[in-house]
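Before a colleague's protein record goes any further, I have to sign it off. Would you go through it and say whether the fold makes sense for this chain? Take the sequence as given and treat only the tokens as open to question. The record follows directly below this note.
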Amino acid sequence: MAHLEVEHVSKIHITRKGDPFLALHDVNIQVGKNEFFSIVGPSGCGKTTLLNLIAGFEKPSLGEIRVDGELITEPGWERAVVFQEYALFPWYTIFENVCYGLKRKRVPKAEQKELAEHYIQLVGLARFKTRFPRELSGGMRQRVSIARALAVNPSILLMDEPFGSLDIQTREYMQDELLKIWQCEPKTVIFVTHSIDEAIKLSDKIAIMASSPGRVAEIKVVETERPRDPTDSTMVRLAVEVKEWLRTQISMAEQAAVEAASPVARG
């Protein structure tokens, strides 16, 4: 049995005008335990919507999502989320931010301290635990977010463009740091990104999504051993293949939008 199963999931949103909009259509995904699974695709293809459904923030219009055979009906501690924006409490220190979920989970204070210090150490911020978020760089703040998510001991870590707002050098550094953390304490990771190169560097499998409506068009397996060299011929071929496919999808979507807006199309 897969650790995470997304079965025939569709999601319909209602627009401001009250019209139904099919954001996701018949999505099927199976993710193994401790697998690093990325989701890529053009803007508007439903990547974040799918992540929100797995998190339990929203419910599918059709289909089911299960973890170890149990239906997801609401958010739960076994599925922790790391967002693109750091979502840290500015009035809390780093230590207090990492303790927040543990307090909500009603973990005893002594255990809170032990766990918080462990995960702050794991992300390399032990010297900064008494600092406030405003005193840290963007990459350091995101490491605090990862530590806070890991501290509640989830079986699944959901990451929505976690490095999207970082500069290139910091982003590459954070990719390496995330892999070290994941290899040290394995979790099932669902990682949403716009970057094909990032997905190939990090993932065991990559779901490629198409839009209008959002759907999983293909799942690629990355078989190259880690650490991965982006100049390796296998890696380059995979990156070119996925990027070409996405460019075609974006071009088709733009053409469809033009045709839909033309006077002839409107009749």
